[in-house]
Request: fold
Amino acid sequence: MEAKQVREALEQRALQAVELAKQLGAEQAEAGASHDEGLSVTVRLGQVESVERQKDRGLSVTVYMNGSKGNASTSDFSAQGVEDAVRKAVSIAGFTTADPYAGLADAKLMAQDPPDLDLYHPWALDVDAAGELALRCENAARAVDPRIENSEGATAATGAGFRIYANSHGFVGAYGTTNHSMSCSVVAKQNGLLERDYWYSVSRLADGLLTPEQVGTKAAERALRRLGARQISTRVAPVIFPPEIARGLFGHFVAAIRGTSQYRRASFLLDVAGKKIFPDFVNILEEPHLPQAMASAPFDGEGVATQRRVLVADGVVQGYVLSSYSARRLGLTTTGNAGGIHNLLVDATAGDLESLIAGCGNAFVVTELLGQGVNTVTGDYSRGAAGFWVEGGEVAYPVSEVTVAGNLSSMFDSIAAIGSDIDLRGAIRCGSVLIEGMTVAGE
Reply:
């Protein structure tokens, strides 16, 4: 089925579900429909290890009746399948407790003429071609150095899909997305000790990916540089988080200011809007309409128009990350973040990772974090880590089996610089982050 036909079929089913829900007595109703297809081929040690094909579609229906909410979903897109899902949602609403905060987002907030963000670029990739790309990637990694002893595989993948949302306000919106990737993970060996590392590239466009050779070479170089790792004694030292790790720090910030965390009073950043939690130079912007970006969206999961907004200005938090439900619980207005954030941009204040390292006397550079030791209720932060020890502004040796610990509140306040080496591969776009002092626990 052609892309246009898929989209039209999804719209038809979503609208059908909303109309039927209204006929069955729902004061409000919404439906989301999706269709996704994908291919992933993994090669290991020169042989195709796995071929995965994905083809999924689904319809989710939510109804609101007398303040109660009911939800049901189905993968059956026949007229009878849609009707059965709607009736099930209506039935469930009859057994749930009324919630005065439940319901659709306000009609006036619906996206009018949502922009085309150029997110849909399908890749006609077959199994043989994907396997060849993955093989080139792995071969490049294994050719870097004889010490690349083993491989955990290289993968070439492509995916495409459509998202449709309709509700009883009369809103219906649709857009397509694609997601293409190349990844590789290899193992290096020296003096009987093994170290592994990986690298990957992701893009909306196939032409936006790094070449297989670039990905494989980077994965191998990252594994090799970890050979000869040692422990260090426990100390307090500056810690540098490279961009692919640093974005997690801002992810914890977002989690703490989500409406759900705020109204449940389960955040270390309660009632923080209007308060300064970062240094003056920290500015964070949400920009949902970047063409071809990985987290762009013309509207959120409730049909609310996404829009550019300042989340942090001069270190001061400007607001929260809200859906319509969490906004009502807090007496606020939704920020168009039902379903998540859309391209968080963290302003750079310094050069790249190498320049941050050169500007330090002694420091610990984190290249891998282990475990789940982050508590967004208290802000306590403790993660197993590996990386490099810096002396005199230069990397001295690799480090393993240590723990980096602190509290997120003090970590945010102690940010000394944000690098210009911005990682564009996810929803949070930031460079390396230097934190003035954290506990690095080792021997």
Summary: Residues 336 and 376 are 22 Å apart (CA to CA). The chain is about 25% helix and 35% strand.
